[in-house]
UniProtKB/TrEMBL annotation:
Gene3D superfamilies: Glutaconate Coenzyme A-transferase. One of its GO terms (molecular function) is transferase activity. The keyword Transferase applies. It comes from the Bacteria. This is CoA transferase subunit A. Pfam families: CoA_trans (PF01144). PANTHER family: ACETATE COA-TRANSFERASE SUBUNIT ALPHA, KETOACID-COENZYME A TRANSFERASE.
Amino acid sequence: MAVQITTAEAVKKIVDQSSVMIGGFLGAAVPLKMIDEIAAAGVKDLTVISIGAGYRGGGVDVGKLVLNKQIIKYVTSHVGTDPNLIKQIVGEEVELELSPMGTFVERVRAGGAGLGAVVTPVGMGTEVEAMAQKITVDGKPYLLFKPIRADVAIIKAYRADPLGNLQYQGMSNTNPIMATAADIVIAEVDEIVEIGEIACEQIGTPGIFVDYIVKGHRYEERKMIYEEMWIATNKL
């Protein structure tokens, strides 16, 4: 059974030099409260694993950790939306590990499934080659990427029950696969409901993968935050 805790309690699971998976992409399906808590806690030298950088920079979602300079390594598929992160990468303040988006997802899935590698032709002939091992299979060249796992995964879902079963709404994004690929999984949810209120066919992540549940913003609050964020960042 998952344990319901506060965001302040949950952030104590993350220490300096932790590897942290963060679900969501460009503001969508992102665990906003937990990111705020990590920023406030000031834990440093983090390896952050996220499919994309913060939305338009400006210190929103993952971008808050960038502005705080809490990240020492960024494992991702997309950094182009955060000029602050790009500046830190170019200045060698942050190490970048880049793989194509589909490959990134497969690497996390492989980490959760206990597989040894992801082998793909995607990225051949690009700068991604430098971040993978080249192998030949049946006379054809491929790139071999190691699986991705983390000390902690912070994911976002719509609802949870006390068993830790999660229901997603709309775009679940990278959250379901990240729930399988970390030693500790913290789910930030809009609502916590009674056992049985989430029907079996609505469960996107079974509770066996979830260690802790934290209460995030209500749907209406998140909608307001995103509207304000998109208006503000589109002025950048």
